[in-house]
Structures are given as C-alpha cells and as structure tokens.
Amino acid sequence: MKKYTPLTLRLIVAIILIQTLRFKFSAHPDSVYIFETIGLEPIGRIAIGILEGIAGILLLIPKTVWMGAILTLGVIGGAIMMHLTQLGIEVKNDGGLLFITALLTFTLTVVILILHKKDIPFLNKT
To answer: How far is CA 44 from its chain centroid?
Structure first.
C-alpha cells in the first residue's frame, strides 16, 4: 500500500491539473470570468493553462516529480491568493468548489514534495 501512495497522489494532482485545461483553452465562460476579474484575460488564462499542463506532465514522470510539485505549488498558491484577495471563496455560485479544489491540490502537492524531497538536487548536494 505504501508503495502506491505516492503514485496515487501524483495521479490525483495531475488529473486535477490536466482536467482544468479544457476550461482554460476553450475559453469557457467561467474561466474567462475568473481571469477577467483578476485582470489577466486572455494571456494569463492561456499562460496558467500551459503551466498547469507542464506541471501535470512533470508529476507523472518519476525523475521530474519534484519539479512538477514545485511548479504546482507556485501556480496553485497563486490561485489560492487570488481567491483570498480578488475572487472570493465562492466564484459564480460554485459553493467554494474551486477554492476547495485548490486547497486540496496544494495540500496533496506538499505531501508529494515531502515524499520526493530526496530527489531535489539542490537540497541533497553530496
């Protein structure tokens, strides 16, 4: 069981990141609304989508898990900050689902990074 936990966490986070791409890249009205609200539409929406896609892929490759986790923390940390400062917890009557998903993704990513800390080259100089 312990052997599969890190992989399961990586898959969950990668799926969350990758499934949001269709909303960003198709200019879904909710995604456009979010990025208009924070003043980053359309370039920010597309750039964040690209970063989330890269992070999701990096999380799936064993040698690059740590890079994907760090990138995910940055992107999702930014999303959490936008919720707390400009968007609010609830966006377009979603009951806070986007915010809760961001918190879950951030938390799981912290766990992933802790589990893979030995792989981070600049922390393990020998």
So the answer is: 15
Give residue 63's pLDDT band: very low, low, confident or very high (50, 70, 90): very high
Say whether pLDDT at 121 is over 60. Answer: yes
Are 36 and 98 a contacting pair, CB within 8 Å? no
Mean confidence (pLDDT) of the chain: 95
Residue 64, CA atoms < 13 Å, CB-side half-sphere: 12
What Å distances lie between residue 126 and 34, 118, 119, 121, CA to CA? 45, 12, 12, 9
Q: DSSP label at 122?
A: G
Other Cβ atoms less than 10 A from the Cβ of 58: the count is: 21
Which two three-digit tokens encode residue 40?
Answer: 């980053």
